[in-house]
What does this fold into?
Amino acid sequence: MTSTFPAIRAGAEPFFSRGGPVGCLVLHGFMASPAEIRWLCQHLAAQGHTVYGPRLPGHGLDERDMARLRWHDWYAAALDGYHLLRAQCQQVIVVGHSMGGVLALLVGANMPADGLAVLAAPIRLTHWMARNAHRLQVMLPYTTQADTSTLPEVIRAEQSRRGEPVLGRVRYERWSTAAVSQLYRLVQVAYDRLPDVTAPLLLVYSKADVTVALDNQAVIASRVRSASIQQATVDHSDHILIQDTERDIVFQHVTNFITAHTTTTQL
It folds into this structure.
């Protein structure tokens, strides 16, 4: 009898680099994969940090896998990463892009993180499909969400420049409506828990983001209880800040934040 095992898509493999006593947990976004965060992970590893970028459950395999998952599965994977780094490192910074940023906030609400870097995370989902996904999932189980922007070409050009396999964006273009419903629920839970966030916080958003409006940044800043809140914006990038043309600016914001909020000594 022959069994078929799922294969991780090229570029969707998790990232790990052992470095110094500062651990950086880097979380990718919804329907994406570790390919989305890989350049940021490499940048942080080059600073000497220990870096882990997990592949969140259901991502980077088969788009149909997303239909059976719950937001708890993505959060549990983020918690696993936090505890793995906490066992090895003196300090742990959680960095998250988009849904990964929502997960970072939820981790920070429940765990003693040393800092949270939240990049283009939605804390209010106002799109009609997200708000009604729990009703739509039976009659509309999947929708096509192809990226028709210039970003895939920007990414392919940078992959070629770096000498990497030219894969473009490694993401699902067919989205499970049931998974969208779980994303909506995750955002609601994280919003309610924002007053429990006390760790130093970096919020980076783009003025040109058509997916997550800039006012999400102010909402988060107004509800958390962090004594240190740094807010930064970029001008031209769309939602995928860490792969778009201003990625180096975003990387530097994250680097500066980590430097400012870590005081470790070498083991």
